[in-house]
Amino acid sequence: MTITFSARGYELDSYGHINNSVYLNYFEHARWEFFRGLDVYSFLKENGNLPVVTDIHIRYQREIKLFDVLTIESFCFQEKPYLIFQQKITNNTTHMTSARATTKLIFLDTDKMAGDVPQEVLDRI
Fold first, then answer.
1. pLDDT confidence of 8, banded at 50, 70, 90?
2. pTM passes above 0.90
3. Any idea what DSSP says for residue 1?
4. For 58-79, b where at least 16 C-beta lie within 10 A, e where not — what string?
């Protein structure tokens, strides 16, 4: 799944490019859009399954500047008990990769106990 958007002015740091912490927001936004695109967000909410990040590794490759048009590609797979996301930000303005991330999620139930990835999610990915 992919999403496309533009870098915004309030995300800039003192060097005039997007602050490194904003990349975390970009990747998380793409993961939620991934869940929405699979039409599992309402299932997760109704059943009290909450995806929680347990580990994230970001490889920053090139800067992003104001108004650059970005695409984030997201792919995921199960590695019990985790759902692993592989994501890449491509800067459509420069046609170069800006960052890559690997993120591990675990799902908590209503008692905040960790469990396997819900079958409903696996069936849709």
1. very high
2. yes
3. -
4. beeeebbeeebebebebebeee
Q: What span, in angstroms and rounded, lies between the C-alpha atoms of 26 and 10?
A: 14
Which pLDDT does position 110 carry in this prediction?
A: 87
Kindly report, residue by residue over 73-87, the tens digit of the pLDDT. Answer: 999 999 999 999 999
51 contacts: CB under 8 Å, gap ≥ 6: 31, 35, 44, 83, 105, 106, 107
- Beta-carbon contacts of 28 under 8 Å, excluding residues fewer than 6 positions away, are 53
In terms of CATH architecture, what is 2-124?
Roll (3.10)
**Count, residues in the chain:** 125
Query: Distance between CA 82 and CA 66 in Å, rounded?
Result: 35
| Catalytic residue positions, numbered | 13
